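Q: Given only this backbone (146 positions), what sequence would you predict?
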């Protein structure tokens, strides 16, 4: 079985690479996709459309351009993994989880135990909650090889 897995969320650590290495090491047939993880590039995604005089409108047009990629890749995904880090609030990750849920896509959350409460609704709809990238790989391995 081959899966397409979208890796959403926090962009400040190497969690995506850890999952990709683990999946490769486990011999899993997975194609991984992700949002643009270059923060300045993501923030400037819509700058070519129009000059704005407000941070709100700059963010708005860049969010819409980024959404082209994000929505397309989530729609094509078999599973979405959503990472919530502890340093920044990832509202976009929560939105991605909700989008996946709305599409009926299974998703796995990845976060530390100390943020269970603020993510209770997101976790309640997730098919699995993992605290480590190793647990994500084990979950994917089970799903693909069972």
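A: Predicted residues:
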């Amino acid at each position: 079985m081959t899966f397409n897995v979208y890796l959403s969320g926090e962009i400040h650590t190497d969690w995506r690479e850890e999952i990709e290495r683990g999946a490769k090491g486990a011999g899993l047939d997975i194609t991984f996709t992700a949002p643009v993880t270059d923060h300045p590039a993501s923030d400037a995604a819509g700058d070519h459309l129009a000059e704005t005089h407000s941070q709100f409108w700059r963010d708005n047009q860049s969010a819409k351009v980024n959404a082209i990629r994000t929505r397309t890749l989530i729609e094509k995904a078999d599973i979405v993994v959503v990472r919530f880090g502890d340093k920044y609030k990832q509202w976009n990750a929560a939105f991605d989880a909700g989008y996946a849920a709305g599409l009926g896509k299974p998703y796995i959350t990845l976060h530390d135990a100390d943020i269970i409460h603020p993510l209770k609704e997101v976790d309640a709809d997730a098919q699995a909650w993992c605290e480590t990238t190793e647990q994500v790989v084990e979950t994917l391995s089970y799903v693909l090889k069972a």
